[in-house]
């Protein structure tokens, strides 16, 4: 099997072939998850460190389950503060990791580029579980797997990502991944939550949600963080919902077979109406299940690189 | 003090102040230049054979951070002056954002005391406002009397326009320049690199060019309104160059400087999250570099300053958003300018030397910057054909955060002379 990645920092620059390999591998692991005994010996003897510097429940649990189901040795380490402002520096942390003979590090950090920093200073394979607003590649891969399951192919799919693009690592990874796979991705949200310079991503930016929502196969709704309102970025969540929330009324105007996705956790009543998240159009729980399969696939493929 | 006389023989002398370009000998007696002509006798004097060397007035860095007091783990006045001497600088302006900041006469005196015996002259720049908080003016008269050569809240912009207006008027009365770090903190807040497509991609909050251009526009307007002078330091944007070019054309008394790194490096280097390229103002784009170079050529930009900003390893080799802003520059400035500006024909040697010597001395009102008879005997000797590779570990600065690591540079400083005292530098 030809797989070209040593690490998974993000999806920018990752080839269509590699993404396809991950998604196809995830499909086979998805079958493992449907078995009565959901464990395989694939990563026996491989030591994985979950190094989370930022709060995360869903992603961390998803990775841990994926690792354990592959029979890896799993160590989890959560550190809520910035390493420089308090205690041990990241360099020292890295040195300790080296001494502990770890093979793979799954990391989340508020500073973009931290996965690269770790890769520069250790011999471990690195999987980025979210670095600031930069990338969250496994989320995008699970999103793509979910879309592929529903639509059969990503090629030509029209995806609209709605909400806070500026602060979203999910949006960035989804844009790169989906575009590589041939989908069309556009953005919609308040002008204050979309970077001025989005030209590098090859996407169109829209501010009129009502005018364009019937055109898309996937409405990918991002979470609006409450703190963004106090920073002067949007005047109120009420106004946000009025302009960009996926309400029952707006759902009626979607394409008949279009779907709703969300990386979670959902602010019900803000970016999604209460019942929209649970409607037949919603793929949100499929995303969660696929997350585990995708993470198993990534761990498996990167550990294989190590052996080569 | 009776120093031994010094004769620098046979060097190619470049002195823009006197429009000199040619092979001449220089005799320095009691720390001052006694004569400048060819075929000088050497009787009784220490002689330096400068054949093959470019001999120029000692370079003056208008903008450096020597970190003392408070940041001695990164640099001290002594180590900073070692770095200066290694780079051909015989005089260095020490910016006031130390801990505590240089915001009263006592602290200016402290810096001068610490500089005794250093390998370069140290000219302290005082803060504009107490604690660099942007609220109350410092005692500029008292500080100037103690030795401050100018005033700057470097590291922070002065947010309050009324304070800036008062600072420009008061500093003018005292006869010292205000050296403005132009940054609107609301616009640059939480920014770590240039705001651009790349910052959007990397997920790093950007610092827009507007954060620099808008306060420059404001301060040029204030200088024009008050009829006082303004010096803008470390320009990084095309907009800044254009604003100052237009202001000069209107007769506004504004000068400015640019750093070697902003003339040579672009934001693309940040793509790998390498913190060596994290600085303020941030590295910008190709278009900005082109404008800065054009500004140098046409005289809009008066001076080149290093903004030497040493940082200890632990505050630079860490997560990008936690890493300190700034790069070292004293030891590489001249050779980088040689490689990037002089060899490609963007600047002549004479213009480059002018921007590193005469212009800073004029802007600051300090001695030096020329090899005039009777003037101070500060000289730099540069071997233009002595290639070397920048290796951080070989630097004299206590800190190793150079963005030019690994660069092949065409020449190196052979020696500096400060007040007739020779510091041999070419021992890399």
As residue ranges, the low-confidence spans of chain A are none
Q: Report the strand count of chain A.
A: 9
Unreliable spans of chain B are none
Summed up, the helix count of chain A is 11
Q: Measured on Cα atoms, how large is the radius of gyration of chain A?
A: 19 Å
The termini of chain B sit apart by: 31 Å
Which percent bin holds the helix content of chain B? 25-40%
Summed over residues and divided by their number, the pLDDT of chain B gives a mean of: 97
Mean pLDDT across the residues of chain A is: 92
Work out the number of β strands of chain B: 20
Structural class of chain B: alpha/beta
How many angstroms separate the termini of chain A?
Answer: 11 Å
General form of chain A: globular
Number of helices of chain B: 13
Q: Output the structural class of chain A.
A: alpha/beta
Strand content of chain B: 15-25%
| Helical percentage of chain A | 25-40%
Describe this structure as you would to a colleague:
- The complex is a heterodimer of chains A (308) and B (428).
- With 308 residues, chain A is an alpha/beta fold.
- Helices cover 39% and strands 15% of the residues of chain A.
- Chain A contains eleven helices and nine strands.
- Chain A has a five-stranded parallel β-sheet with strand order 7-6-5-8-9, with helices on one face.
- The longest helix of chain A has 24 residues.
- The termini of chain A are close together.
- The model of chain A has no long low-confidence stretch (mean pLDDT 92).
- Chain B has 428 residues and is of the alpha/beta class.
- Chain B is 29% helix and 21% strand.
- In chain B, α2 packs parallel to α3, α4 crosses α7 and α7 packs parallel to α8.
- At the A-B interface, α4 of A face α6 of B.
Short descriptors:
heterodimer, A: alpha/beta, five-stranded parallel β-sheet, 9 strands, globular, B: 428 residues, alpha/beta, eight-stranded mixed β-sheet, four-stranded parallel β-sheet
């Amino acid at each position: 099997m030809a797989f070209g990645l040593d690490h998974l920092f993000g999806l920018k620059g990752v080839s269509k072939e590699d993404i396809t390999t991950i998604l196809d591998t995830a499909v086979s692991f998805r079958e493992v998850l449907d078995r009565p005994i959901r464990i395989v010996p694939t990563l026996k003897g491989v030591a994985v460190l979950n190094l989370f510097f930022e709060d995360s429940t869903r992603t961390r649990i998803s990775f841990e389950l994926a690792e354990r189901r592959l029979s890896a040795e799993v160590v989890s380490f959560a550190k809520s503060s910035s390493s420089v402002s308090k205690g041990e520096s990241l360099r020292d942390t890295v040195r300790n990791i080296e001494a502990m003979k770890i093979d793979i590090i799954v990391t989340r950090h508020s500073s973009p580029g931290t996965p690269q920093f770790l890769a520069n200073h250790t011999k471990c394979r690195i999987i980025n579980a979210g670095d600031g607003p930069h990338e969250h590649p496994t989320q995008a891969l699970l999103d793509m797997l979910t879309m592929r399951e529903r639509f059969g192919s990503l090629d030509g799919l029209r995806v609209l990502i709605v909400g806070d693009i500026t602060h979203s690592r999910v949006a960035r990874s989804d844009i790169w991944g989906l575009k590589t796979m041939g989908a069309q991705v556009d953005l919609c949200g308040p002008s204050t939550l979309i970077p001025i310079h989005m030209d590098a991503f090859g996407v169109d930016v829209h501010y009129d949600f009502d005018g364009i929502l019937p055109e898309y196969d996937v409405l990918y709704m991002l979470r609006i963080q409450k703190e963004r309102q106090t920073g002067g970025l949007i005047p109120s969540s009420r106004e946000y919902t009025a302009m960009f929330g996926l309400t029952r009324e707006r759902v009626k105007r979607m394409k008949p077979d279009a779907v709703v996705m969300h990386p979670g956790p959902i602010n019900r009543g803000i970016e999604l109406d209460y019942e929209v998240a649970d409607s037949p159009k919603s793929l949100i729980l499929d995303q969660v299940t696929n997350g585990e399969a995708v993470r198993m696939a990534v761990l498996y493929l990167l550990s294989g690189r190590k052996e080569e | 003090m009776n120093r031994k006389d010094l004769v620098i023989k046979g060097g190619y002398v470049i002195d823009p102040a006197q429009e000199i370009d040619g092979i001449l000998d220089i005799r320095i007696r009691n720390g001052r230049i006694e004569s400048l002509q060819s075929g000088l006798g050497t009787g009784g004097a220490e002689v330096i054979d400068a054949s093959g060397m470019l001999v120029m007035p000692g370079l003056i860095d208008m903008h450096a951070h020597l970190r003392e007091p408070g940041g001695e783990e990164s640099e001290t006045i002594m180590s900073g002056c070692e770095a200066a001497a290694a780079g051909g600088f015989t005089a260095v302006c020490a910016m006031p954002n130390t801990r505590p900041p240089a915001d009263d006469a006592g602290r200016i005196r402290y810096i001068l005391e610490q500089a005794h015996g250093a390998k370069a002259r140290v000219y302290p720049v005082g803060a504009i406002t107490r604690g660099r908080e942007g609220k109350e003016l410092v005692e500029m008269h008292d500080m100037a009397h103690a030795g401050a050569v100018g005033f700057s809240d470097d590291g922070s912009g002065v947010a309050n326009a009324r304070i800036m207006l008062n600072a420009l008027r008061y500093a003018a009365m005292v006869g010292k320049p205000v050296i403005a770090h132009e940054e609107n903190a609301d616009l640059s807040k939480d920014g770590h690199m240039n705001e651009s497509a790349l910052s959007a991609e990397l997920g790093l909050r950007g610092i827009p060019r507007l954060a620099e251009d808008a306060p420059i526009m404001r301060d040029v307007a204030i200088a024009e309104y008050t009829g006082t002078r303004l010096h803008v330091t470390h320009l990084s944007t095309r907009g800044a160059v254009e604003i100052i070019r237009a202001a000069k054309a209107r007769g506004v008394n504004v000068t400015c400087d640019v750093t070697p790194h902003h003339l040579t490096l672009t934001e693309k280097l940040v793509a790998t999250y390498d913190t060596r390229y994290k600085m303020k103002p941030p590295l910008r784009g190709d278009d900005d570099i082109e404008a800065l170079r054009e500004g140098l050529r046409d005289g809009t930009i008066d001076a080149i300053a290093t903004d030497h900003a040493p940082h200890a390893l632990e505050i630079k080799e860490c997560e990008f958003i936690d890493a300190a802003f700034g790069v070292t520059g004293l030891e590489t400035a001249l050779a980088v300018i040689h490689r990037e500006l002089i060899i490609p024909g963007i600047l002549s040697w004479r213009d480059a030397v002018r921007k590193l010597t005469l212009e800073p001395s004029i802007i600051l009102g300090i001695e030096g910057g020329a090899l005039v008879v009777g003037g101070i005997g500060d000289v730099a000797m540069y071997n233009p054909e002595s290639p070397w590779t920048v290796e951080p570990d070989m630097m004299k600065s206590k800190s190793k955060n150079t963005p030019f690591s690994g660069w092949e540079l065409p020449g190196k400083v052979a020696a500096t002379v400060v007040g007739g005292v020779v510091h041999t530098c070419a021992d890399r």
